[in-house]
Amino acid sequence: MTKDKVLIFDTTLRDGEQSPGATMTHAEKLEIAELLDDMGVDIIEAGFPIASEGDFKAVSEIAERSKNSVICGLSRANFKDIDRCWEAVKHAAQPRIHTFIGTSPLHRAIPNLTQDEMAERIHECVTHARNLCDNVQWSSMDATRTEEDFLCRTVDIAIKAGATTINIPDTVGYTAPVESADLIRMLIEKVPGADEVIFATHCHNDLGMATANSLAAVEGGARQIECTINGLGERAGNTALEEVVMALKVRGDIMPYQTGIDTRKIMNISRRVATVSGFAVQFNKAIVGKNAFAHESGIHQDGMLKNRETFEVMKPEDVGLSGTSLPLGKHSGRAALRAKLSELGFDLADNQLKDLFVRFKDLADRKKEVFDDDLMALVYQNDSGD
Ligand code: KIV
Ligand code: ZN
User: Fold this and answer.
1) Statement: the pTM of the whole predicted model exceeds 0.80
2) Which family does it belong to (predicted)?
3) Does residue 100's CB lie within 6 angstroms of at least one atom of ligand 1?
4) Which of 1, 29, 49, 283 has its CA 20 to 30 A from that of 291?
């Protein structure tokens, strides 16, 4: 089966960095951009050049150093922003200008523009961006709360003005998977010229549906997913790169799409982003959480020791981990205790193991996790007859 390619657009350095408190230094941004480029991200949104002198410098330097990825900068829909964005990204071998405006009634009310005035602005700004750069992305911000007719009109204007990618953001994480797919499908069916551009999905996680919505949008015809490492982003964050990429890899049977991401580089970049942003990854976070490949209960550990597939749908090695972890705690059973002891070099007779197991359970009731050192102390206590 041939698989359609889905482009991965990473916005950790733009939307991710917009999370309150997640600011990164210049050197940290360069390092993350290099890791993104190296892992196979197709497009890196490196920042918002007009936002600050620092953002401008970071985008310019990331553009200069980029090897494989397209380097994109964000700009509001006005000439000043677009010119500044172009000044920063033009150093890249493959530059992209991304320009946007809020198209829903709530967002139109802020600049107080009528639909006709906004339509004219989109035409002028996309045309201007396209005169500077061959690769232009248009976003109708808050698309999922924009009237269908007006959304079609904005997309139509942007395509006619030369946009090469059309992004349909779920800016406030409001949409549901079935709507996400239908919206993209509807746009592709209704807007002339839609088959000549790439449709992108950009989801936020306010209701915890960003990953599901992004994958549904792909089912509807989107071929670019916008996401961030660890799902970093404003409020509840953006779609997590590691989740959509691994979902497409693991469930290729029902979602026949491929990405160019080297998934074995996921853990390393996840840890680096957590460190530089100061946003720790929750233990039970899918794919990159500390517990994503850890099993403590006796039934699960016993199953895992016999066949990894009993309780894991993907291999930890595929995301860059050295293996599964079977931490010992009060829910653990004899099989995991025996396996851990043998890993530590102890081969206990059945009666010794039986005795140790009782003392291990007693300790585990008092401690959250029983570490190797605790276990060795228990074994030596046994030996010395204490
Ligand atoms: O969430 C959003 O709508 C955005 C746009 C700027 C694309 O981040
Ligand atoms: Zn966003």
Assistant:
1) yes
2) Belongs to the alpha-IPM synthase/homocitrate synthase family. LeuA type 1 subfamily.
3) yes
4) 29
